[in-house]
Amino acid sequence: MKTTVRFAASVLIAGVSVAVVATQAAPKAKYTTEEVMKALHKGKDSIGKHVMDGNGTKEEIKKLLEYYPSMLLNDPEKGDKAEWKKRVTALLAATKALDKGAPGALDQYKEAVNCKACHSAHKPDKEHK
Ligand code: HEC
To answer: Residues 6 or more apart from 108 whose CB is under 8 A from it?
Structure first.
């Protein structure tokens, strides 16, 4: 009887640690890609636009750095996963370079934030057509 209880307890503990490890292995994105787009890119007066025009403030760049990492954790609904990771990694690297004021960072950002290239590869065209 005692052994059964002890066994049950250790199974329970094992289960809990497996759950903890699983959570750590797959961190959850804070924002969906749609939320990232709405917060940073949507509209004529977006943060992304300011930054691309060379008028991004420190706060705006910090906001990019707050949202872009979620895209790295989200899988694309469409297109190749490795390709997606590559694009988002480049975008994040360019934004970090901007934050540091690295030379050439603005050109790097403009290239990485290419709306059309990423959308044609990864944006599901559910609302249109
Ligand atoms: C690295 C990839 C990537 C880049 C770069 C990118 N987008 Fe997106 N964008 C996406 C994906 C993926 C979606 C679809 C999100 C969804 O609905 O799940 C999207 C959706 C959107 C939407 C629709 C959001 C909504 O209201 O549902 C807008 C607007 C948008 N992007 C604007 C832009 C603009 C403007 C740029 C360039 C300045 C840009 N995006 C650059 C990947 C990207």
So the answer is: 93, 94, 97, 98
Is the minimum distance from the CB of 123 to ligand 1 under 6 angstroms? yes
**Alpha carbon of 67 to those of 9, 77, 91: distances in Å?**
41, 18, 11
* pLDDT, tens digit, 9 for 90 and up, residues 85-95: 999 999 999 99
Does the Cβ of 95 fall within 6 Å of ligand 1?
no
Site to substitute for ligand 1 among 110, 115, 127, most atoms within 8 A of C-beta:
115
Cα 40 to Cα 17: distance, rounded to the nearest angstrom: 38
Nearest Cα residue to atom 12 of ligand 1:
123
Task: Encode pLDDT of 9-19 as tens digits.
Answer: 666 666 666 56
Distance CA 47, CA 53 (A): 10
